[in-house]
Design goal:
The chain is an alpha/beta fold. It has a single domain, classed as Rossmann fold (3-Layer(aba) Sandwich). Helices cover 40% and strands 14% of the residues. An 8-stranded parallel beta sheet has the order 1-8-7-6-5-2-3-4, sandwiched between helices. The relative contact order is 0.18. The structure holds NADP nicotinamide-adenine-dinucleotide phosphate. It comes from Halovibrio salipaludis. Keywords: Oxidoreductase.
């Protein structure tokens, strides 16, 4: 499958008006930018993440800009179990009764080490956060997504989840699994009962803490800020991507 690029999408101001959209890892980096961008286009955003202080800051920024009041849902995806997801479902059911969008964004980078030396405990933590967490959250959200008239799920991939690369360890393999989750869920939800579309998006090199961890010697200014790559995030979340499902996307044109 070859990925499609959406870099220069021009959204309308109220593209996501009245939509309820959950963003995982909403406290920092690309997730923070996506949450603020979705709110700026009219969505009520559910800020899910593990560092409450960061989520509160994003909440305040959205509130100060006069956008719809977000909801903070603290959750450490790595350690969360069925009871935690039940609570998340309960809260969304009570407050909104449906979910129009889900951006799986939170991820753990893990070690940059050859598989020969990869720490098995770190492997578990990466898989738990990036794969099992995304599976459990997706599974929990399916009834709420089915209850929405035009729901979209976006899984965040990476170029190392589409072509294996030395030393990227569990992270790369977790992103291959993310693509598998996306394709499987897209196929399962592609029926007459539901309007839920499911796609994957590779943000490409972006100026964040994770990028700095992965490439400490790189000049951060050589990569765009998260705000600059939001076109594909808006396109896939909004009504213009209706009917598009099971596809791989890139947020940036490869240069
Ligand atoms: P980031 O700045 O490190 O942000 C990652 C976010 O995920 C943070 O908000 C972090 O929370 C959250 N998170 C991590 N573990 C979590 C857990 N167990 N429970 C809940 N939240 C957790 O990274 P980013 O660069 O924005 O990455 C966003 C996505 O893009 C990831 O899926 C990443 O794999 C992907 N990606 C990024 C690049 C790039 O160049 N930046 C390239 C390809 C793919 P805390 O702030 O509390 O730690």
């Amino acid at each position: 499958m070859s990925a499609q690029t959406v870099e220069n999408y021009q959204p309308t101001a109220d593209l996501l008006k009245d939509r309820i959209i959950m963003v995982t890892g909403a406290g920092d980096g690309i997730g923070r930018a996506a949450a603020k961008t979705y709110a700026a286009h009219g969505a009520t955003v559910i800020l899910l993440g593990r560092t409450i202080k960061k989520l509160e800051k994003v909440y305040d920024e959205i509130d100060a800009a006069g956008h719809p009041e977000p909801l903070i849902l603290p959750l450490d995806i790595e350690g969360a179990g069925a009871a935690d997801y039940d609570q998340v479902v309960e809260r969304i059911e009570e407050d909104f009764g449906r979910l129009d969008g889900l951006l799986h964004n939170a991820s753990r980078l893990g070690d940059r080490t050859p598989l020969e030396y990869y720490n098995p405990e770190e492997w578990e933590r990466v898989m738990r956060t990036n794969v099992t967490g995304a599976f459990l959250l997706s599974q929990a959200m399916i009834p709420l997504l089915r209850a929405a008239p035009d729901a979209s799920v976006i899984f965040t991939s990476s170029s190392v989840g589409r072509k294996g690369r030395a030393n990227w360890g569990a992270y790369a393999i977790s992103k291959f699994a993310t693509e598998g989750l996306m394709e499987t869920l897209a196929d399962e939800l592609d029926d007459a009962r539901t309007a839920v579309r499911v796609n994957s998006l590779n943000p490409g090199a972006t100026r964040t803490y994770m990028r700095h961890l992965a490439y400490p010697a790189e000049d951060p200014a050589s990569n765009p800020e998260p705000d600059a790559i939001m076109g594909a995030y808006l396109y896939l979340m909004g009504p213009d991507s209706k009917g598009v499902t099971g596809q791989q996307f890139d947020a940036q044109i490869k240069r």
